[in-house]
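The records we work with from here on pair a chain with its fold. The integers have meaning only within a learned vocabulary of local backbone shapes. A complete example follows; check for yourself that the lines match position by position.

:::
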Amino acid sequence: MVDQNGRLGKLIEVEEEEYVSILYGAVVPNQPRALVLLDSNDRERGVLFLADFGGDQTPNHDLDTKLAVDFGTSNTSLAYSFNDGQPETLRFQLTPRPIWGKRRDVQHLELPGFFPYEWSATTTKGFYPTILLSRRSDARLTDDLEPEEISLDHLFKVDIPGLHKDLEQRLYEGRLNTTWKPHANLKWDLEGRTEPWRTLFLELTLLYAHADLFFNKGAMVDHYVFTFPLAFRKDDRESYHTKVKNALKQMRYYCYGASLMSHVNYDDKVDESTAIAESIGAIGNKSTMELFIDVGGGTCDIAVSHDRRFLVLDSIRVAGKTFFQFAKKNFSDDLEGSVHFRKHLGKLLQGANDGELKLINPDPSFSLDIIYSVGISGLDDQHFREREAAILRKGMGAYSYQRYRTRLLFRHIITYSLLQACAAAVDHRLKLPNGINLILGGNGWGLMLFAEFPRVSIRLRDEAQSILKTLKTQLAQHTTDEEREYLDALKISNLVLLNEDNLSKAKTNVALGALNADRVRAVGDRSLTMPYTGVTLEELQLSGANAQTIRWCERWGSASFKEKFPGVEQVEDGSFNMPDDLEKPFSGVLSAFTSIGNVRNQDQDNMPPTVWTNINGRITEFVSTLRGNVERLEVSPINHFLSEVLYSKKAASDYLDTLAEVNGNYKSNSRED
């Protein structure tokens, strides 16, 4: 290409005999005016002059434009607003127009590596899978590439497959493997393997976003909000925001030039829990407590609010990826219901009437969670609803392993969230005549169909009410008479399932809420929203200080530690009084999480005593290995119990499989055909 000043563009080779030409780096905006044809010896063989593209694209500087990005483990969503007006989900619409010749493929199939000619159904839904493809042909495009070494050239050697229409089947079958390598799990820094792929995904996403807002709406972005999960440790958060801001500066240079590249108005204080809470627009009052539960791919984010003030902001690593960890056993073990589960996946993702989903992609990194994310991205709401109804009609059988474990997963998420709400009610002495209003958001709730829970709010409200009853029974022995007054009065007054009528709303609401979260409902002092301990640790000792008891309804975090252990800045040598009988949970609160797994009597804990001995030991080990500055001890004992003990990724045995076996839901298939 030749620009309006007569300068040749930079030629970038992306594959053998495949090039792109780029115009960039000019002090003033320029436009392509001609195409120069070069032969294999770099000799000019002709010039094609281009017609005017319609004049200069002049931005509307009266638009104060904000862009919010919900960068999720499984899916990513964007939203924008003008002059602090009504937020809108950003759905990509900009498409390229060929200026010479025709598209190479006669079938008009989308080709990764090129700006989408036809956007996927994900863009109408408002979110797309957080998956990146990189070209295998570039030997320098590896895990060793540092984020600061990424150049514009690299953006032409990666692609986001979820943005291309009808690319899912080719990805699933592995037909793109010879040219492209997939990268997922980009949100979390997994042993240093996330970069440079996270930065490349973000930069390409931002390129599309800036282009769409500029060319379709005449807007230049002035302000950015990137949400983050509360499960991010402080170091993770700081590293994440630093890398995002670096990517933003680079993208602003490409899009707006050197003069605006460093002018980044960036908000790093909006977590996903706050954003989902704001997206509802619920009017808080003194008689009602709002409990927001956002189940994503990597984390479940929880917010407890009362009278438009956040009381708890918390996050657990029990979410969508957790589901696929136990779902994989249906492909390797001969369990009851496994064949039905594989057929259900085939029906949902591929429309197969009686065919099983098979893991046929030879690339080991293309795991079950990626297959699901890619497959579901091509479904619109109507197709999902029809296939969901067919799956619920057929079921997987009362003794299905998958049905049992999926039900337990969502019951555990609700139990944990209600425990935090109970603690907040007792701690703040809240009398709530209108009870608790649950708001369920996030794509993870779409997996309920494998628990054979319909997407019906009233059905889940009954489930939550039953769990609250069990929880209050277990908490009764740990409360005073005065506290029990607040606890006993708690009830589930209402439940809102965001994806009940609109499958997309559960995901897109995070980015939408982020645009208002910084100016509507301020979080304030983070120590005032730290999660509650959840279990009572009798005579807790830290760093040799005098022993103090931390109760289940007291916060876990720097504020509590500084009050109870004055002068202790660095924590080590933790211990607390354990009861002599370790064959039952050291705290009855723990039984609430296992009692709900008893399919015959939800109020009775039937976890084997030998398992409780191990679990008690794991929690003792957690306390004894507490290390570091009190400001960094963010994971509470009850969070550790759920995320790292019951749902451990490293333990030799799965305690919840043991519970499934006790209840008759973990046995070999002997009756399926």
